[in-house]
Design brief:
The structure holds 2 protein chains of 2 kinds.
Chain A lengths: L1 E4 L2 E4 L2 E3 L10 E5 H6 L1 H5 L5 E5 L17 E6 L6 H12 L5 E6 L6 H6 L4 E2 L6 H8 L13
Parallel strand pairs in A: 3-4, 4-5, 5-6, 6-7, 7-8
Antiparallel strand pairs in A: 1-2, 1-8
Chain B lengths: L5 H22 L5 H9 L3 E3 L4 E5 L5 E3 H14 L3 E4 L5 E3 L7 H9 L17 E2 L14 H11 L14 E4 L13 E7 L5 E7 L11 E8 L3 H15 L10 H8 L1 H15 L7 H10 L14 H8 L1 H10 E3 L5 E6 L10 E3 H14 L3 E4 L5 E7 H13 L14 E2 L14 H10 L3 H7 L4 E4 L13 E8 L2 E8 L11 E2 L4 E2 L3 H15 L6 H8 L2 H7 L4
Helix pairs in contact in B: 1-2, 1-4, 3-12, 5-9, 6-8, 7-8, 10-11, 10-13, 14-16, 16-18
Classes of the chains: A alpha/beta, B alpha+beta.
C-alpha cells in the first residue's frame, strides 16, 4: 500500500496488530490499550513501534512514552469526529512529538489541509485514486488567519 | 468598517475554488451525501423543504452599500427577488440552485462577502450590538474585537468539526443588545479599576431545545489574553463535549454536566499552557480599531432647526421618530431603524428593489453603511437629524417605515413549515394573522415595548424562549399547535419564559395573544412595561383568561 508522507507518495512499511493478534516482526502499530498492557514487550520489540489512537484516547496518558513511539496513527471512525484534530495539536504543540502522525480510517481527502495545519504529516487511504486528490488538497489555501502547528 | 487585505481576499477566493471542486465531486458521485453534507453546511448550504437554502455571513451585522446591492443582484438573478435577514445578522436565500451556489459565492467574494461557517458544527458568525460605535451607553466599541474573533474562527483547522455548532457574541455597552448570555460564549467589554478594557466572559448559554442562561467563567479577562482563552475553551469543548447525542452536544450541556467549577479548572489548566505564547498585541488591536474609526461627522449637525419643525407639524413623522430611531452618541445624529416588519411581509424579508433603494439611502445619508439587527431589521446608523424627514419619506415610499420597532408587531419569526424541513408548524402565516389582529398602531404603541418571538419547532431559531411572549409551534398528531411562554428576556435581566399552559390550536393562537395583551392593559401600573407586569403579576392572571373556556 502506498501512502503520502511529507507530501511525497511512499510505500507503507507499517502493520497494525489487532489486540487479539500476536506481535509480528517489523514496524508495527498497536492500540493504546495494548501498549499499556504489553509496554515492556513492545519496548523490546525488534522493529519500530507505533500507536493507533481512537478519537477518545487521551494523549496525556502516554506522553511520557513518546520517545519509544515512532508513529502515531489517528484513526477516524467518523470524519466528523474532530477530537483527532486536537489530539494532533496536543502531540505537536504540548508534547513536542517530532515523529510521524498519520491520518487513517474514515477521514476525507477534503480535510487534509486542516489536518496538515494541526501537525499531521502522513495520510493513508484505501482508495489509491485518493492519493492524487490528497496531494492536491494539501494546497487548498495559501493564507491563514490563526496560529496552529503549521 | 473592516476592509479586506490581499490575504483576506485570497482566502475567500481559495475557499470558493475549494467548494466548487467539492460540489463538482459530489455531482460526479465521488463524495457521498453524508460527506458532502458536512462540507456544504460549512459553506452555508442547507437542503430545505423546497430547495437549498444559502446563508450568507453578515459579519457582526455590518454591510456596505456595495454589498447590499450585491445581495439585491443575487436575489434577482438566482432567487425569487427577495432574501431574508436572520436573528444572527446573516442573510438567507431560499431558492438558489445547488449547482449554482459556487457561482453565487464567487459573486459574493467580489464584494468581500462569504458564507463560510454559517452552518454546520463549527464556529459560526460572531454577532454583536447593532448600535456598536454609535450607542450612548457604550463602554468600548465591540467591532474591532468581533473582527479579530471573526478572523481567528474562520477556517480554524482544529475546531471545524466540533461536537455541535458554536456561537460567540460580543457586547460593548451597558445594555446587552446582542443576547450574549444566550451564546456558547458571550463577551462583555468591561473596564477594570485601572480603566483598561477587558472581557467578562460568559460560557454555556444557549437557546434551542434546552434554553440555558450563560454563566460567568471569567469576570475580567485581559484584552491580550482574548484568543488564548477562547482557544482553551474550544479545546476543552472539542475534546470533552458529548458526541453521542446531538441534542446534548452543545457546550451548555458539557458545562452543566461537568459543573462550572470543574469546567473552569479544566479551561484554566489548558489556558496556563497557552497564555504566554499567544498574546493579542496592543498594536494589533489598535490597527483593527482604526478600521472602525468614526466617520467624518458634521460638527454643526445639531444646529439644524427643520427637524424640530417637522416633528411638531407632522404627527406621523413624530410617531416614526419615537419608535424607529435611536439616540446617537454624536449630537445632531440618530440611528434609523428600517423596519422589515411591514404587515404584509414575512418578518425579516426584503426585496431586491428595497435592497437597492436601501443601498442608495445608505450612500446618501449614512456614510454608505447598513447594519442588520438580531431582531431582523436594518439600521442606518449615522443619519443627520436634518435628513431624517427625507429619509422617513423615502423609507415610507418603500414600505420600510412601519413605526413598530420594539412593539408587538416587530416579531422575530423563523421560516417555519413553509420553508424549513425541521419545522413542526407554520410561523409566517401565524405572524401575519397576529399582525392583522393588531393592525391599530395606536393600540400597538399603547402596549409599548414588547418582544414576541415565534419558532416553528423546538430548535428555536426565533428565540421564542426569550421572547416577552414566546410562541413555539408543535406537532400534535399531524396538526399544528402552539405553546405559549411569558416573561423571557435576552437583555441584561436574562430570563427564560415560563410556560403558560397546554398548547393552543392554530385557530386559537391569535385570540390567545390578544387576550394576554388585554390582561396586561387591564392590570398594568402606570408606565409599567409588559415584561415588568408579567414579572410582578406572575402568569396566573394571564393563564386564567386564556384558558377560561376550557
Amino acid at each position: 500500500m502506498q501512502i503520502i508522507k511529507d507530501t511525497t507518495i511512499v510505500n507503507n512499511s507499517w502493520k497494525f496488530i489487532a489486540d487479539d493478534e500476536d506481535l509480528s516482526a517489523g514496524d508495527i502499530t498497536v492500540s493504546l490499550a495494548r501498549w499499556q498492557q504489553d509496554r515492556e514487550a513492545l519496548i523490546a520489540h525488534s522493529g519500530n513501534v507505533g500507536l493507533r489512537l481512537k478519537s477518545n484516547d487521551n494523549v496525556a496518558d502516554f506522553a511520557d512514552d513518546l520517545a519509544h513511539i515512532k508513529l502515531i496513527e489517528l484513526n477516524f471512525a467518523d470524519f466528523a469526529d474532530g477530537r483527532s484534530f486536537s489530539q494532533a495539536w496536543l502531540l505537536r504543540g504540548r508534547f513536542n512529538y517530532q515523529d510521524e502522525i498519520r491520518a487513517v480510517g474514515h477521514y476525507l481527502p477534503e480535510q487534509v489541509f486542516y489536518l496538515s495545519r494541526v501537525g499531521v504529516n502522513a495520510y493513508a487511504t484505501d482508495k489509491p485514486t485518493d492519493l492524487a486528490l490528497i496531494m492536491n488538497n494539501l494546497n487548498d489555501f495559501t493564507v491563514k488567519y490563526q496560529a496552529s502547528i503549521n | 468598517m473592516y476592509q479586506y487585505t490581499e490575504n483576506d481576499q485570497t482566502l475567500i477566493d481559495e475557499r470558493v475554488a475549494q467548494f466548487k471542486r467539492q460540489t463538482e465531486n459530489y455531482f460526479k458521485g465521488e463524495l457521498t451525501e453524508d460527506e458532502y453534507r458536512a462540507l456544504r453546511l460549512r459553506n452555508g448550504v442547507y437542503i430545505q423543504t423546497h430547495a437549498p437554502l444559502l446563508r450568507v455571513a453578515g459579519p457582526y451585522g455590518l454591510l456596505n452599500s456595495k454589498q447590499v446591492r450585491k445581495l439585491a443582484h443575487i436575489a434577482r438573478t438566482y432567487d425569487k427577488n427577495y432574501c431574508h435577514f436572520t436573528t444572527r445578522q446573516n442573510i438567507q436565500f431560499n431558492w438558489p440552485k445547488l449547482e449554482l451556489v459556487p457561482e453565487i459565492l464567487a459573486e459574493l467574494a467580489t464584494v468581500q462577502m462569504h458564507a463560510i461557517q454559517t452552518s454546520g458544527n463549527c464556529m459560526r458568525n460572531t454577532t454583536s450590538d447593532h448600535l456598536a460605535g454609535v450607542a450612548v451607553d457604550e463602554i468600548a466599541d465591540p467591532r474591532p474585537y468581533c473582527e479579530i474573533i471573526r478572523q481567528w474562527t474562520t477556517l480554524h483547522p482544529e475546531f471545524d468539526y466540533l461536537p455541535r455548532k458554536f456561537k460567540i457574541a460580543v457586547s460593548g455597552a451597558l445594555n446587552d443588545r446582542a443576547a450574549t448570555q444566550f451564546h456558547d460564549i458571550g463577551l462583555h467589554l468591561v473596564k477594570n479599576a485601572e480603566g483598561e478594557v477587558g472581557f467578562k466572559v460568559f460560557v454555556g448559554g444557549g437557546l434551542g431545545r434546552t434554553p440555558i442562561i450563560g454563566l460567568v467563567i471569567k469576570p475580567f479577562l485581559e484584552q491580550k489574553h482574548l484568543l488564548s482563552y477562547l482557544e482553551a475553551i474550544l479545546r476543552i469543548y472539542n475534546l470533552f463535549g458529548r458526541r453521542d447525542n446531538k441534542y446534548k452536544a452543545r457546550i451548555k450541556i458539557l458545562v452543566k454536566e461537568t459543573g462550572l467549577d470543574k469546567f473552569t479548572k479544566l479551561v484554566d489548566a489548558e489556558w496556563e499552557y497557552l497564555r504566554a505564547d499567544n498574546e493579542l498585541s496592543a498594536e494589533r488591536v489598535e490597527a483593527m480599531q482604526a478600521h472602525f474609526a468614526s466617520p467624518a461627522y458634521d460638527v454643526k449637525a445639531d444646529s439644524d432647526t427643520t427637524f424640530a419643525e417637522h416633528k411638531a407639524n407632522d404627527k406621523a413623522f413624530a410617531t416614526w421618530l419615537a419608535h424607529n430611531t435611536a439616540e446617537h452618541k454624536v449630537p445632531g445624529y440618530s440611528a434609523v431603524f428600517i423596519s422589515l416588519k411591514a404587515p404584509d411581509m414575512p418578518p425579516g424579508d426584503i426585496t431586491d428593489v428595497q435592497l437597492d433603494a436601501v443601498a442608495d439611502l445608505a450612500d446618501e445619508y449614512s456614510f454608505g453603511e447598513v447594519r442588520a439587527t438580531h431582531r431582523q431589521n436594518l439600521i442606518l446608523a449615522d443619519v443627520k437629524q436634518a435628513d431624517l424627514y427625507t429619509v422617513w419619506q423615502k423609507l415610507a415610499a418603500l414600505q420600510l417605515a412601519t413605526p413598530n420597532i420594539g412593539t408587538a408587531t416587530d416579531m422575530i419569526c423563523c421560516p417555519g413549515l413553509d420553508f424549513c424541513s425541521l419545522a413542526n408548524a407554520g410561523s409566517i402565516g401565524v405572524a401575519k394573522e397576529i399582525n392583522e389582529a393588531l393592525d391599530d398602531l395606536d393600540y400597538i404603541h399603547d402596549i409599548g415595548d414588547l418582544k414576541i418571538n415565534m419558532s416553528g419547532c423546538m430548535n428555536g431559531c426565533a428565540h421564542q424562549s426569550v421572547g416577552h411572549i414566546g410562541i413555539l409551534g408543535v406537532d400534535k398528531k399531524g396538526a399544528e399547535w402552539y405553546q405559549i411562554t411569558l416573561g423571557g428576556s435576552s437583555e441584561n435581566n436574562a430570563a427564560i419564559g415560563e410556560r403558560l399552559g397546554p398548547a393552543v390550536a392554530k385557530h386559537e393562537i391569535t385570540e390567545a395573544i390578544t387576550t394576554i395583551l388585554d390582561v396586561y392593559i387591564k392590570n398594568r401600573l402606570e408606565d409599567e412595561t409588559f415584561l415588568a407586569a408579567v414579572n410582578r403579576l406572575g402568569i396566573t392572571p394571564f393563564k386564567e383568561r386564556v384558558y377560561a373556556n376550557n
